[in-house]
């Protein structure tokens, strides 16, 4: 006969979970400090009214007709605002290709492209140097970079007008050195300089944010293994900084493309960019549908850029955030 197995020791009894309250659904339990979706309704309403609402109005206006006199729109659907971007119809009714607005777009693209390239060339070494400093010094350098945001853009632009005018610091130094007076204010150069100054922090901060968490001991290890400086920069550091570079390029290129203040104040109105053209359509020309159509075209370009960045992020596996 086999001996009976000894009885197993039982652990402490586990109490049954408390019954869920009547009417509660599965997955509806909130974590401590979590609020319900009803608390977000006011913010959603404000966002829809002041963000999505104006965009919808602009898109609707771009398909409306222009009144015979004065500003505003007539609620008759038409594609004339978009057709007039590329074609012009004379009094007889003949339609011909008109490249004037394409030229404005080309000038805007060129200034935005130059601004982006110069900001990238200046920002990458600065952001890399900032990321290799001590934590205390990094915080101080970030503070220095963000100081321009504390002052209104108009004030900073007027300061550049004082620097670049005939009696400014640069011209006084040029005269003292015997080079004579330099014509800088109210020129394309002044407008370009104002754009670079304005959007430089928008390139520095994303690149620095991408490099700040990088362990630079990996770069030292690459040096120890015999890699050259350019190889380390290209194979180790640049891939880490790529998301920040892409974010900075978009944050600089699109605002610079539609910029208004710098071409007007520093360029003296001699530099006609897309931002000035849109403002003139809503102001002097009182052609609201065409101004809205130009705004929609810029919006479409921005959406294409965002879609391209999302596609790159998905294929490369690198998370790209459009944020400072």
From TrEMBL:
InterPro entries: MetI-like, MetI-like_sf
Domain of life: Bacteria
Parts of the chain that traverse the membrane: 35-63, 109-128, 140-163, 194-216, 236-257, 290-312
Membrane topology: Multi-pass membrane protein
Taxonomic lineage: Bacteria, Bacillati, Actinomycetota, Actinomycetes, Micrococcales
Record family assignment: Belongs to the binding-protein-dependent transport system permease family. CysTW subfamily.
GO biological process annotation, one example: transmembrane transport
UniProt-recorded name of the protein: ABC transporter permease
UniProt KW Transmembrane keyword: yes
Entry keyword set: Cell membrane, Membrane, Transmembrane, Transmembrane helix, Transport
Gene source species: Leucobacter edaphi
Name of one Pfam family that matches: BPD_transp_1
GO CC terms, sorted: plasma membrane
């Amino acid at each position: 006969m086999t001996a009976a197995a000894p009885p197993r020791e039982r652990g402490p009894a586990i109490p049954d979970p408390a019954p869920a309250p009547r009417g509660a659904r599965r997955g509806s339990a909130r974590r401590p400090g979590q609020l319900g979706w009803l608390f977000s309704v006011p913010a959603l309403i404000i966002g829809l009214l002041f963000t999505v609402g104006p965009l919808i109005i602009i898109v609707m206006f771009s398909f409306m007709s222009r009144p015979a006199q004065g500003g505003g729109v007539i609620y008759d659907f038409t594609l004339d605002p978009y057709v007039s971007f590329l074609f012009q119809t004379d009094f007889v009714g003949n339609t011909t290709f008109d490249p004037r607005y394409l030229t404005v777009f080309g000038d805007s693209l060129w200034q935005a492209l130059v601004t982006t390239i110069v900001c990238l060339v200046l920002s990458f070494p600065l952001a890399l140097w900032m990321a290799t400093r001590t934590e205390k010094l990094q915080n101080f350098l970030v503070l220095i970079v963000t100081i321009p945001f504390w002052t209104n853009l108009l004030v900073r632009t007027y300061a550049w007008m004082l620097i670049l005018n005939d009696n400014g610091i640069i011209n006084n130094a040029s005269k003292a050195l015997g080079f004579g007076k330099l014509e800088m204010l109210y020129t394309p150069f002044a407008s370009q300089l104002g754009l670079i100054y304005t959007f430089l922090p928008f390139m520095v901060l994303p690149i620095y944010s991408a490099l700040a968490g990088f362990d630079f001991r990996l770069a030292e290890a690459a040096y120890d293994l015999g890699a050259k400086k350019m190889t380390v920069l290209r194979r180790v550091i640049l891939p880490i900084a790529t998301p920040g570079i892409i974010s900075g390029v978009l944050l600089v290129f699109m605002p610079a493309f539609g910029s208004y203040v710098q071409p007007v104040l520093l360029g003296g109105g001699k530099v006609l960019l897309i931002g000035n053209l849109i403002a003139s359509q809503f102001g002097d020309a009182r052609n609201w549908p065409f101004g809205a159509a130009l705004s929609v075209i810029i919006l479409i370009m921005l959406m294409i850029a965002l879609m391209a960045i999302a596609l790159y992020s998905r294929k490369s596996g690198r998370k790209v955030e459009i944020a400072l």
